[in-house]
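Hi again,

Forgot to attach this to my earlier email, sorry! This is the prediction with S-adenosylmethionine bound. I've pasted everything inline since the attachment limit keeps bouncing my files.
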Amino acid sequence: MKELEFNKIYNMDCVEGMKCIPNNSIDLVITDPPFAIDFKAKRSNYHRTASRVLEGYSEIPKEKYYDFTMKWMKEVYRILKDTGSMYVFSGWNNLNDILTAINELGFITVNHIIWKYQFGVVTKRKFVTSHYHCLYVCKNDEKRKFFPYSRYGKESKSERGKSLHYEDKEDVWIIKREYWTGDQKTPTKLPSELIRKILMYSSEKGDIVLDPFLGSGQVAVVSKMLNRQYIGFEIVKEYYEFAKERLEKNLYRIKKEYEITSTQTSLKLFDKGVKYGESRMTYLKTAKQIGKILKHIPKLWDGRNSILEMKKTNFPHWKQMEWIGFYFQFLCGKYLSRIMKMPGPRYGRVEFDGLKNIPWDFKAHAMNTSSHQIIVNDSEATANGIKDYGKVGLILALGKVLYNDEDRTFQKWHEALKGGKSKYEIERIRRGAWSRIRKVSFDLQQISFIRITDDTLVKCGSFQRDFRNAGGQPRREKVLLDLEKIDEELVYFIEF
Ligand SMILES: C[S@@+](CC[C@H](N)C(=O)[O-])C[C@H]1O[C@@H](n2cnc3c(N)ncnc32)[C@H](O)[C@@H]1O
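Structure tokens for the complex follow:
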């Protein structure tokens, strides 16, 4: 059989497939093999299992699990580079066979990681399982690649002054599962954050990442998102097709609604956005059009240069301490004004950043903070925008922020440029408030296109509901997006 190509996935048995990959050619393996199943238990449970999981899901009888594991892992050992590593996920019931195979084949165990997730099944007579094992192994411990500062610099601190670098390197990883309601189901799915973390610590751009058991294709999709090469196998045709479509269309999620065709006009009559000719399909099209242009914006934003650039063009917000969000607005203005009306529609005293079929807002958010919440636009204006256009959109720049300004040189530089501290800063100092460490640079990783509808508002809630300002008037409520709840709304993304 001829050699397989990279940046492709294959609908075949992985042991057969791996035989067509030359020795020492894979940089990283991330995989979540099928479970060993007790077939008697499965039969008694058959209807439940069958209705939830796509037909054809391939599982292995318990007594054959060790042989099965040895077979695929032996191939991995052969094709893995000396500089490479493998991360294997396993529940505790199969762990014994996995550990034995790892040792038998000569892999060296680097770490035994625990992935702690939420929402285990509630149990009455025992404890709830809410973790998974992840064995991080390699062929050569001296040569294996590891990039300790790829996510957090040595000095990276959270806003509360804790070492982010240390926290991220602990071997218990608390990462939520992603729930995709309404999508085609695959049996288990690794959250993208988990894969992203492994990719960043154990691979570089251009490296070849293999997943012998693709399922929904998460490992390949996230590898592609981070500019790695990928290859993988999936034995069940439906899963393979699903993963292939995600990869080909660069879509993180595939929802049925995007399949609405132009002939299904009756459906559109009930689409709220129809008033403005905005079908559901158009959101994705518009997002892609915007994405194509935003792909050209710079990836690394240095604080000083960004502020100077905004100042030079008289962008009104160059004095703002939280320069990253404003700089993203500035970039959107610079790059998108050809295709988007800016500012967007106005509701009372609040306006959207732009209008292109629907109202859009631009926001930037740090990936390396413990905060998963983003304050978006005014709640009332958002509700009005949804009423008028069926939905509103958020263009969200996600990146790694460097906070290193402990000696405050960046802060002093900015203040000098502004001609002194702002009234806001002076007031904070007067109150004895702790001055936030400035963000010195931003390394753009991804721009997401998020669709906000009535359902989103219900799900995410709002910010400042009961707040009052200094004069006693109620503060305006703002939409609060919880990044961990909005996989449903994340329609499209581009990577940097
Ligand atoms: C636990 S799931 C992997 C889920 C995946 N990590 C994801 O995020 O979607 C294991 C997958 O391996 C597939 N599989 C089982 N035996 C296989 C084999 N011999 N070759 C290739 N794929 C196989 C199953 O169909 C299933 O989709």
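Confidence is low (pLDDT under 50) at residues 39-56, 256-278. The chain has two domains: 8-249, 261-403+439-495.

That should be everything now.

G.
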